[in-house]
Amino acid sequence: MEKLTINEKTLNKYFGVLENLDINSKKNLIIRLTKSINKNPKQLRNLKNIFGAWHGSEDAEDIINEIKDSRHNNRKIEEF
Fold it and tell me: What is the pTM of this model?
């Protein structure tokens, strides 16, 4: 997931809402933000580990035909 970057104007709007919180809520928010900063960044996954090669005895034509045969068209058009 990409990190969200906000500008100063947007940050001030958020702070305007947050400054009205009670002390316990502010402390909890500080703790959560601190934990999120101290987290170890997720390791990037190697694409080779995510996707594997296709293992099967069928050729491409058989697989394509099987996919096409499994399609169902249940489209009902209602009349006005």
Answer: 0.43
